[in-house]
Specification:
This protein has 2 domains: about 180 residues, Rossmann fold; about 160 residues, Dihydrodipicolinate Reductase, domain 2. The protein is about 40% helix and about 25% strand. It has 12 helices and 13 strands. The protein has a 7-stranded mixed sheet, with helices on both faces. The protein has a 6-stranded mixed sheet with strand order 9-11-10-8-12-13. It binds 1,4-dihydronicotinamide adenine dinucleotide (NAI) and ligand LTNE7NMQ. 1,4-dihydronicotinamide adenine dinucleotide (NAI) binds next to helix 1, strand 2 and helix 12. One of its GO terms (biological process) is threonine biosynthetic process. Keywords: Amino-acid biosynthesis, Methionine biosynthesis, NADP, Oxidoreductase, Sodium, Threonine biosynthesis.
């Protein structure tokens, strides 16, 4: 049976949830999926780094409170995250990047992804920075080194929006996308409607694992701006930069406006959209809208998100599901590893068939 050795870069909510999946369900996943998973390295800004090429014992790490983790005292551990050394030199098959998203320049995650691909390692990431700001270049780098760059979780967490559009919409022309793409702001708007104030609602979203390390990105729309960029570039074939996308968040809407709208059957939502024009150019924007109750996105509540694809042959197709959450996003990483396995297994089979060995 194949086995993939994982190097986890960043050990916050999402990568820790992936480690839990590997620890708790590794055997049943192996039976179902036909490959095993093993964690051989973990790096984190706060905890340091830990390496065991025979496989890290995850039990004590998962038993510790996240804030208490300190790898320094463990065999193979260090206070220094040693990201570049771990990514380039510790033998692993897949580098799983889940550090903070930096909407400005994507760093240091962008470098983490580059180092891994240059070293001939597959990458899966939930980090929106590298995908939005350098997705095409990173895909080219992956192709050059014969490895995969997967990022399903960068848009709508574990809900398979990108893979649905890329694998199931063959023969359709997608003319635009529109959706609610941030779990935190959607959750916060719902809680404000219920009478909770903004700081308390944000604190709840942080506790639930939905919010960015700096929740300003959720509230001011920058997180959705990156997701719209990813969708526009991946699905509409655009080449947008952040400054091409108008961005307004939800901080300008007062609680009274939210509750007043609700009393009139309207619901404030943070909506991101990208539309292809007749000349092939793409317009994209992020802004709060008060949607009437009959609008398909009006009923999307809490951390649930939705993306509608406008197509020529099917009209509008909407994919809805979790937009945030630690376990939900860890599932996105698992789905990326499954995609890597399937792609490379079929590539190997093709080579064997061509050389008449099967
Ligand atoms: N939590 C969610 O629902 C979702 C998160 N994402 C993205 O996934 C990534 C991870 O999210 P979470 O785990 O929720 O965030 P988190 O804030 O819980 O964890 C990030 C971890 O990365 C570590 N880190 C930061 N910079 C580092 C560096 N230079 N080297 C090593 N470690 C570093 C931090 O110490 C922290 O433990 C973020 O980029 C986020 O935008 C994407 C979809 C959903
Ligand atoms: N902070 C983000 C997490 C997923 O990208 C959100 O709330 O949607």
């Amino acid at each position: 049976m194949s086995r993939y050795d994982l190097a986890l870069i960043g050990f916050g909510g999402v990568n820790r949830a992936l480690a839990e999946l590997v620890f708790q369900r590794g055997d049943s996943l192996a039976e179902e999926l036909g490959f095993a998973l093993r964690v051989v390295a973990i790096t984190d800004l706060r905890a340091g780094s830990l390496v065991d090429t025979d496989g890290i014992d995850l039990a004590p790490l998962l038993a510790a409170e996240p804030g208490e983790l300190d790898f320094a005292g463990l065999p193979g551990g260090s206070t220094d995250p040693r990201n570049e050394w771990v990514i380039r030199h510790v033998p692993s098959d897949v580098v799983v990047e889940a550090t903070f998203t930096n909407p400005a320049d994507g760093e240091p995650a962008l470098s983490h992804v580059r180092w891994a691909l240059e070293s001939g390692k597959h990458v899966c990431t939930t980090n929106k920075g590298p995908v939005a700001l350098a997705g095409q270049a990173l895909k080219a780098l992956a192709a050059e080194h014969g490895v995969s760059f997967e990022f399903e979780g960068s848009v709508l967490s574990g809900t398979p929006v990108l893979r649905t559009a890329q694998s199931l919409f063959g023969g359709l022309e997608i003319t635009g996308v529109e959706g609610i793409m941030n779990g935190t702001s959607n959750y916060v708007l719902g809680r404000i409607e219920e009478g909770v104030d903004l700081p308390a609602a944000i604190a709840e979203a942080q506790e639930l694992g939905y919010a960015e390390a700096d929740p300003t990105a959720d509230i001011e729309g920058h997180d959705v701006q990156l997701k719209v960029m990813i969708l526009a570039n991946e699905v509409l074939g655009a080449d947008l930069r952040r400054e091409d996308i108008f961005c307004e968040g939800i901080s300008t809407i007062t609680p009274d406006e939210v509750r007043d709208a609700a009393s009139k059957g309207l619901r404030w939502k943070l909506v991101g959209s990208a539309t292809r024009n007749e000349d092939g150019s793409v317009d994209a924007r992020v802004a709060p809208l008060a949607l009437p109750s009959h609008h398909p996105l009006a009923g999307i509540s809490g951390p649930v998100n939705a993306v509608s694809f406008h197509t020529d042959l099917l009209g509008t197709v909407t994919v809805s599901g979790p937009g945030a959450g630690r376990i939900e996003t860890a599932y996105a990483l698992l789905s990326d590893i499954i995609a890597i396995h399937q792609r490379h297994t079929s590539a190997t089979r093709r080579v064997l068939q061509e050389t008449h060995l099967v």
